[in-house]
Amino acid sequence: MKILVPIKRVVDYTVKVRVKPDGSGVDLNNVKMSMNPFDEIGVEEAIRLKERGIASEVVVVSLGSGACQETIRTALAMGADRGVLVETDLELQPLGIARLLKALVLKEQPQLVILGKQAIDDDSNQTGQMLAGLLNWPQGTFASKLEIADGRATVTREVDGGLETLELPLPAVITTDLRLNEPRYTTLPNIMKAKRRPLDVLQVADLPAEAVPSIKTLKVQPPQPRKPGIRVSSVEELVRKLREEAKVI
Amino acid sequence: MAILVLAEHDNDSLKPSTLHTVTAAKKIEEKIGEAEVHVLVMGEKVEAVAKASAHIDGVSKVFLADAPHLAAQTAEALALQTGQHLNASNYSHILAPATTFGKNLAPRIAAQLDVPQVSGISMILDAHTFVRPIYAGNALATVQCEARGVVVLTVLSTSFDAAGTTDTSAAIEPVNKVVPDTSGVRLVGRQLSSSEKIELTSARVVVSGGRGLQKAENFKLLEDLAAKLHAAVGASRAAVDAGYVPNDYQVGQTGKIVAPDLYIAVGISGAIQHLAGMRDSKVIVAINKDPDAPIFQIADYGLVGDALAILPQLTEQL
């Protein structure tokens, strides 16, 4: 069974982003970039399925600029077998990405696609569900547990209020939640080995899919700052302030 | 033209998130003029949910798809059914709450219509222009959809008040056709937190614990405080990762987004991703032993000290 894992290069989760003064977006100059943490969980899960003998090949794919090769190499160093970069300087949005991924799925014929539930830059939480919708495949979103047996995936999902377990026939789309696994660290020998693993570069035009963005970003602003608060010195003072000043209790 | 709201419910009762979503739909209606707000209820034995929907202020029609295969409310079955309803009627917008229900379902519907989606809107500027937080709420993007095609949106409950209810009932109509689900997806089971627990996203007061509580047992101290305040209990991602509490307690960018009247953060340092989930709370209290913890930067009232010592005192004095 082949598994396809789409990965996105995003601003590292530890970076506090700054909005550009002209309101055109956030400043990405000289900012540390990493693999989207949820996608890293997806890569880890796919590799574990291979280690358990359930998957035969793990293919990672990233869409974007040439710099995404670095992100793909990270996934290869974790243990993925092969990488594909769909190169473009276009701004990509979830629907366009889902269309490109659909084209790639039809080409690669995986039984399982594992994506992060959301990217921590645009926080859309759409691509996996859209891909499943376009392919008309079942979807197991926000997975905290995944088991594959007899051509079916059993997925425990993190839902508001608790957990839900679904059984899906394969092929299927899975999106990862935080507790699915803890991704491994890459080691130097594996990073060296990853350099020899195949990484194909395609152009968007090579895939029969339309990816022109249809949502325009008019401006980006910083959130309203909160007015500065005060320090209280005791529980008594805190309770008094909450009662008499804030009037919330 | 009409605006369609997808009702979130558990087959027995309507979830408050639907009321907030209806308010967003009404705002769009005002911008367009001459539009109606419809609610689509899909499930099994959902008559009570349909009735409750029909009494929401501003709703002019409720459509009901009631069938056994809709009981589990899988995205596959609901997306097909919504698609069928859209074929039969003319809608400019489809709205769902930005909860796990809406997040799971809405993009599948959008993809099947081959239209984009705008996720988690916090403001409506006109019928095609919306504001939404990105980068964990560290930036707000104003985005515009093309004027052609249906606009699919998910709505942040914390940014729109709950719609009220009326004595008069809107008409309830069955959908013109119930479509079978051929996806082969089966619900194995659900493990839901007890219904006595106050829901995080609709609570007036939230008390959240972080790594500073040191172990799972110490969440009992937080629960005592919550009981006194009729508050919901939340947690930081660090506390969830440490296994102190289940994931559905998590407040933050990747968990729940809350905006209560009072948010008390106990032993939470204030990572960017946590702040994204609670920064719109009206009053924020931070209790932390580290005076330099980032949580103090957004707190209205900060108290430096040992959370485990302070919690029982606070519970006692309230």
How would you describe this structure in keywords?
heterodimer, A: 249 residues, alpha/beta, Rossmann fold, nine-stranded mixed sheet, two-stranded antiparallel sheet, 6 helices, B: 318 residues, seven-stranded parallel sheet, five-stranded parallel sheet, 9 helices, 28% helix
How would you explain this protein's 3D organization?
Chain A is of the alpha/beta class. Chain A has helices spanning 37-51, 68-78, 94-108, 127-135, 188-194, 235-245; strands at residues 2-7, 9-11, 33-35, 57-64, 82-87, 112-116, 139-149, 152-159, 162-169, 172-176, 199-203, 215-221, 230-232. Chain A has a 9-stranded mixed beta sheet with strand order 9-8-7-10-6-1-4-5-11, sandwiched between helices. The longest helix of chain A is centred in the first third of the chain and has 15 residues, at 37-51. The relative contact order of chain A is 0.18. Chain B has 318 residues and is an alpha/beta fold. Chain B has 2 domains: 2-174, HUPs (Rossmann fold, 3-Layer(aba) Sandwich); 200-317, TPP-binding domain (Rossmann fold), CATH 3.40.50.1220. Chain B has a 7-stranded parallel beta sheet, with helices on both faces. In chain B, helix 5 links the parallel strand 12 (205-209) and strand 13. In chain B, helix 5 (219-229) runs parallel beside helix 9. Chain B is globular and about 60 Å long. The model of chain B has no long low-confidence stretch (mean pLDDT 95). The interface between A and B is large, with 76 and 85 residues.
Reconstruct the topology from this structure:
The complex is a heterodimer of chains A (249) and B (318).
Chain A: E1 2-7, E2 9-11, E3 33-35, H1 37-51, E4 57-64, H2 68-78, E5 82-87, H3 94-108, E6 112-116, H4 127-135, E7 139-149, E8 152-159, E9 162-169, E10 172-176, H5 188-194, E11 199-203, E12 215-221, E13 230-232, H6 235-245
Parallel strand pairs in A: 1-4, 1-6, 4-5, 5-11, 6-10, 7-10
Antiparallel strand pairs in A: 2-3, 7-8, 8-9
Chain B: E1 2-6, H1 16-32, E2 36-43, H2 47-54, E3 61-66, H3 75-88, E4 91-97, H4 100-113, E5 117-121, E6 123-126, E7 129-134, E8 139-145, E9 151-155, E10 171-174, E11 186-192, E12 205-209, H5 219-229, E13 232-235, H6 237-241, E14 262-266, H7 272-275, E15 283-288, H8 295-298, E16 301-304, H9 307-317
Helix pairs in contact in B: 3-4, 5-9
